[in-house]
Design brief:
By secondary structure, this protein is of the alpha/beta class. It has three helices and seven strands.
């Protein structure tokens, strides 16, 4: 199996509100194949999909009442410390909740967290050990 992540789907409580947060609030480009039932956003190689939580749970055959920490965080890596602060301000201005202000972190970078309208955690980070390539993808050492 090739190591690859192509699409991340978030099960959201209110599709219209989540669509507005990512498209209008954060300014992310939404694909023309999005419709009333699902939204797709191009995010530099990986697609972010928004789908109603109860329908996603039903599709997977699991209960939709998940609560608490989901055991993962999404990440948005940027090219500098200043951009971390700028992205956090943009997210909060769009309706996100600031979970952790950006600080210098033990691994040598700078990061903070926000939660989107459904509570999904996003880490915004600058990591000098994993620089961004010219196309914006993270360069992880071999």
């Amino acid at each position: 199996m090739e190591p690859r992540i192509t699409l991340v789907t978030l099960g959201v409580r209110d599709l219209d509100a989540s669509r507005a947060f990512y498209r209008d609030g954060l300014g992310w480009p939404m694909s023309s194949v999005s419709n009333d039932d699902v939204a797709f956003f191009r995010t530099g190689g990986v697609v972010l999909s928004l789908y109603p939580r109860h329908l996603l749970a039903d599709d997977a055959g699991v209960p939709s009442d998940g609560a608490g920490f989901p055991g993962f965080a999404l990440a948005h890596n940027v090219a500098s410390k200043d951009v971390v602060d700028e992205v956090l301000r943009t997210a909060v201005g769009a309706g996100a909740r600031l979970v952790k202000p950006a600080v210098d972190v033990f691994w040598g970078g700078y990061s903070g967290y926000f939660a989107d309208p459904d509570g999904f955690l996003w880490e915004v980070a600058w990591n000098p050990g994993f620089p961004l390539g010219p196309d914006g993808t993270m360069q992880v050492p071999d």
